[in-house]
Design goal:
The complex is a heterodimer of chains A (about 260) and B (about 475). By secondary structure, chain A is of the alpha/beta class. Chain A contains 13 helices and 8 strands. Chain A has 2 domains: about 120 residues, no CATH class; about 120 residues, Rossmann fold. In chain A, about 50% of the residues lie in helices and about 15% in strands. Chain A has a 4-stranded parallel sheet, sandwiched between helices. Chain A has a 4-stranded parallel sheet with strand order 6-5-7-8, sandwiched between helices. In chain A, helix 12 links the parallel strand 7 and strand 8. In chain A, about 60% of the residues are buried. Chain B folds into 3 domains: about 120 residues, no CATH class; about 260 residues, NagB/RpiA/CoA transferase-like (Rossmann fold, 3-Layer(aba) Sandwich), CATH 3.40.50; about 60 residues, no CATH class. Chain B has a 6-stranded parallel sheet, with helices on both faces. In chain B, strands 8-5-6-9 form a 4-stranded mixed sheet, sandwiched between helices. A 3-stranded antiparallel sheet of chain B has the order 11-12-13, with no helix packed on it. In chain B, helix 10 packs parallel to helix 11. The mean pLDDT of chain B is about 95. The chains are: A alpha/beta (about 260), B alpha/beta (about 475). At the A-B interface, helix 1, helix 2, helix 3, helix 4 and helix 8 of A face helix 1, helix 20, helix 21, helix 22 and helix 23 of B.
């Protein structure tokens, strides 16, 4: 993992891990990820066989079901060299931090998992560590606020970098979000299994979002995006929740195009 | 205390519907959580202290036998007696017998979560021995006949008005609600007499120092110091993990405990007890007894995946950081230890079968891990317990997952094991859900997504996967 952003070897080719949610629920986030990376001069490969890293079953305790899916993930991605980029801190955390537990009885698999995990970057982590947080200079007129997704913040350690990236977007008025590092209540299967608790946590988050007056909430993980958007819609709110890849891609398009607004 | 972990869901929903309690619990965030952040920022070597604290606890727990032996030897050298209790029942009986044998009439208690495991105050009162909690929060809880809501703030869920009703028999609806100082003075007045007539005290132990045989107590009200000096018999109760090797270690542990608990740099009182009054001393209790309790801790010790939970120093920082605790409240957890730490120790100590909802009730946000002064990886252990209850991985009797849940995850696995199935499954789901969707969102949906749509809209599966969209892009780029 490059620790020094000022002197890394800048990759010109990466493999995209979409994540199952982006692949089937939010393909626009995946396309935006490709757009942003290509804008930075990076060629993006996509492995057609990919599905999921196994996190949903692992987090629900069903490790015997997660095991073959995670093994399959490793088999697919160990075939390619170079960085792998995923627009999700949560999936990155699964591979990098939790595969060790899933494969704990299998030394060989742990080694293989590490080989893939060491090359796996979350999108904003990849951009900020190789290109810097000021690499994407776009244009977008909007009032936005940023929510820090838990796994990206606490498992991957990406904190203010996405905010710095957003602050480089010309025309984007960024209002700080009170308690931006408190969970939105998503938590994967938890949000379905215990919807009352998940929503109670979400309600607090939405109150803080609405009090910013922002029209757009930016977050870096699709699960959290849908948790907040789903809750806002149920409230009858017009506030939009957007994945950071999308807002970066839009701002790039605006800057290179005729200055169109979103 | 009898575990009520099975009632987690109903207790949680009761609390979530109680506006007043919700407002009261906010203090754990605005007061304690933020206080800890400020204290940590003001401590230049904070991260080093945490690392050191973790190393001290790791080392001690790895050599627990040795340090327990050393502690017991040194307490006895200091003239105290040591009793190892296998469980809460044994500990309770030992203390009751001690009290009866010495014709004790009144016991003052200072705060101790271990004594809650024994339901000690209640049991002593049942034996006809007047027993009064002297920590203000605990006293309020005792008057309300409840159990502690929080590790360091047992009555944090009580409004001032409720406290006034408990402390002042004449308080009527519509009366002016006294402020915190006035309430404290009311309690002080009531407690003063008890302190004077008490002939035995029971205190907890924040740290037991093995090399000196001393115990350290951290309090803010001075009741701990009264308890350890005034009555003629002092009984200290501790879980067997509450031990550290040396006085030097105590300095590290006190710094991280107090900052993590309340955000103070040091508590109003730190009391060190080296046993009873020596022959040449004029003050202090005549007898000192240390009760060291197992009560399920051995199970944690013998469990390599869960052992780290014994590093806990009961500061409550994980509770304050936890978005779930702040909504469901302390009583939902159904036993002595609430919040994230309770969600990992309670299932092992009292049985996972009834307590499986405790580790399930987490978004795995990791705020607890971040807040923990000794860096206990609580999320990892929540996941371990989920594994055990989903698949009965260590004991088939622990399995609580339903057949339909197992079916869902089996189907999920089958769907994820091939790209064609993955795409086909998504298409099928879209086909089923599409008639229910408007503008790409569902307000209602069949199980298992119905849990989600009970409170939030759910996005319809996209018309084409990313794979198919990228394939189109590649084609377009080529042509």
């Amino acid at each position: 993992m490059p620790e020094n952003p000022s002197n890394p070897t800048i990759p010109d080719r990466v493999t995209l891990f979409a994540s199952c949610m982006v692949d089937q629920l939010a393909p626009a986030v995946g396309e935006s990820t490709v757009d942003v990376l290509e804008h930075l001069g990076v060629t993006v490969d996509f492995l057609d066989d990919q599905t999921c890293c196994g996190q949903p079953a692992f987090n629900s305790g069903f490790r015997s079901e997660a095991f073959p899916v995670a093994t399959r993930f490793i088999e697919i991605f160990e075939k390619v060299e170079g960085p792998i980029v995923v627009p999700s801190g949560s999936c990155a955390a699964m591979v990098r931090n939790f595969y060790g537990d899933l494969f704990r009885d299998d030394e060989r698999m742990i080694g293989r998992a590490r080989n893939v995990g060491d090359r796996l970057y979350e999108l904003t982590e990849f951009i900020s560590s190789f290109f810097g947080t000021d690499a994407v200079v776009g244009q977008l007129s909007d009032d936005a606020t940023y929510h820090k997704c838990c796994h990206l913040l606490r498992e991957i350690g990406i904190d203010e970098q996405p905010i710095e990236m957003l602050s480089n977007i010309d025309g984007l008025n960024l209002t700080p979000l009170e308690r931006d590092d408190v969970c939105c209540g998503f938590g994967g299967a938890f949000s379905v299994k215990m919807p009352d608790i998940s929503s109670a946590i979400l309600d607090e988050k939405l109150d803080y979002i609405e009090s910013t007056g922002a029209k757009t909430v930016v977050a870096a993980d699709t699960g959290c995006v849908y948790q907040m958007q789903g809750g806002l819609r149920r409230r009858g709110s017009d506030v939009q929740v957007v994945h950071i890849a999308e807002i970066l891609a839009m701002s790039i398009r605006n800057a290179s195009g005729a200055g169109a607004k979103r | 205390m009898k575990p009520q972990t099975i009632n987690f869901r109903s207790k949680a929903s009761q609390t979530m519907g109680d506006e007043e309690v919700q407002q009261a619990i906010e203090h754990v965030y605005t007061g304690f959580f933020k206080g800890r952040l400020v204290a940590a920022a003001d401590t230049p070597d904070w991260e080093e202290l945490r690392t050191k604290g973790k190393a001290i606890k790791d080392h001690t727990i790895a050599h627990l036998d040795y340090y327990l032996g050393l502690l017991a030897d040194n307490v006895e050298k200091n003239g105290g007696s040591v009793f190892f209790a296998e469980d809460a029942e044994e500990a309770r009986k030992h203390i009751i017998d001690l009290a009866h044998a010495r014709n004790i009439k009144t016991v003052i208690k200072s705060k101790s979560m271990v004594s809650e495991e024994m339901a000690l105050a209640e049991s002593l009162n049942d034996e006809g021995i007047e027993t009064v909690e002297t920590d203000l929060g605990e006293y309020i809880i005792q008057l309300a006949n409840e159990t502690p809501y929080h590790l360091i703030a047992p009555a944090v869920h009580k409004s001032r008005k409720e406290v006034a009703e408990l402390l002042d028999d004449d308080f009527k609806e519509g009366d002016r609600v006294p402020d915190a100082t006035e309430l404290t003075m009311m309690a002080r007045e009531k407690l003063r007499g008890v302190f004077e007539r008490a002939d035995m005290s029971v205190t907890g132990v924040n740290f037991a120092v093995a090399e000196s045989g001393s115990i350290a107590l951290v309090t803010n009200e001075g009741n701990g110091r009264m308890s350890t000096t005034v009555p003629r018999v002092h009984v200290a109760v501790m879980g067997m993990e509450k031990i550290i090797p040396s006085i030097q270690d105590l300095s590290t542990m006190l710094r991280i405990l107090i900052r993590s608990a309340t955000g103070q740099r040091i508590s109003t009182y730190v009391t060190m007890v080296n046993g009873a009054r020596k022959p040449d001393e004029e003050e202090g209790p005549e007898e000192f007894h240390l009760v060291i309790m197992n009560n399920g801790r051995q199970k944690l010790l013998a469990d390599p995946q869960m052992r780290e939970s014994l590093n806990c120093i009961r500061c409550g920082a994980c509770l304050n950081a936890c978005p779930v605790y702040r909504k469901v409240g302390g009583h939902a957890y159904g036993w002595v230890y609430p919040g994230p730490i309770g969600a990992i120790v309670t299932p092992v100590m009292t049985g996972l079968k009834d307590a499986s909802n405790l580790p399930a009730a987490s978004s795995l946000c990791g705020a607890c891990h971040d807040a923990c002064p000794v860096k206990i990886n609580i999320p990892r252990m929540l996941l371990e317990l989920r594994y055990r209850s989903a698949e009965g991985s260590t004991d088939s009797a622990e399995r609580t997952s339903s057949a339909s849940e197992r079916f869902v995850w089996k189907s999920w696995r089958i769907g994820m094991m091939g790209r064609k199935r993955f795409d086909y499954g998504a298409k099928l789901a879209r086909l089923i859900l599409r008639p229910l969707a408007r503008n790409g969102w569902l307000r209602k949906s069949p199980p298992p997504i119905s849990g989600w749509t009970s409170t939030r809209d759910f996005p319809l599966i996209a018309a084409g996967s990313l794979r198919s969209r990228l394939a189109k892009r590649r084609k377009k780029a080529k042509s």
